Amino acid sequence: MGFLVPKDGTFDVFQTLECGQVFRYQKQGDCFTVFSHDKKCEITEQKDSFYFHSNNENYFKNYFDFDTNYDIIQNNVQDKGLISSAIEFGKGIHILNQNASEVIISFIISSNNNIKRIKAIIERMCCHLGEKKDGYFAFPTLSAIAEKDEKFFSEMGAGYRAKYIVNSARELKIVNFDALKSLSTDELRQYLTSLPGIGRKVADCILLFGFRRTEVFPVDTWIEKAFQDELGSLGADKMAKILAKRYGENSGYVQQWLYFYKRSLNVSRRDR
DNA sequence: ATCCAGGCAGATG
DNA sequence: CATCTGCATGGA
Q: Each residue of A38-48: pLDDT tens digit?
């Protein structure tokens, strides 16, 4: 139950998992374990290939997005300077094809929070509320979340976001996600921002990571600082519109390269 | 002790 | 429309 991906420079498991798009993974030595919804995958780095081991091989072949040609995208982004440095630094990043409801709940938790704590909150939620699998817990379903109350998620450490998690889940559990996927990006952003705890930035992360809308450019505190010299102190919202227009369909990729680059230079390795 | 972390909601000009 | 403030929590 496994497959090999050769190290040809177009994919790197460390960069892909550490670039901030996913929170539910672990690293032990040269082995990564990733969880998506109710599924698990172990990735071992070998001399000249990555070995993927899972009971859901096809799911993770799609999850890790091996059908996108990242060389072409990188060549199409012709910026010099900062962007090209960021691409060189993170050229093995793939944008994952994640479970949409997991992304929504995870990024509600992410707001005004740090990655280490986001991961801990999500892990506790899975242990207490997720379906028990063989040796791990699934991400909680929207229905399971909706049955709990605000106090429960406060006890998970979610802070003031506890009520956002419950109330958004209670709305989302009756939503047809196939219908959401058929909406335009602007329509889908408008719907997402109507949910409690979801503003422009969280919505853009959900659009990119949960619905693969690569024409959005999420602007968080790191990205905002990276562009303040050039664009000044607009708000994050205006900056997101300007950058999405500038980079078009490549926005999401450029954003990930930049985020990973800037954050890696400023965050110690222990803070993960 | 103050600031910051993948910001948002609500109140007020 | 824009700007301002409070907010849970924990690490630096």
A: 999 999 999 99
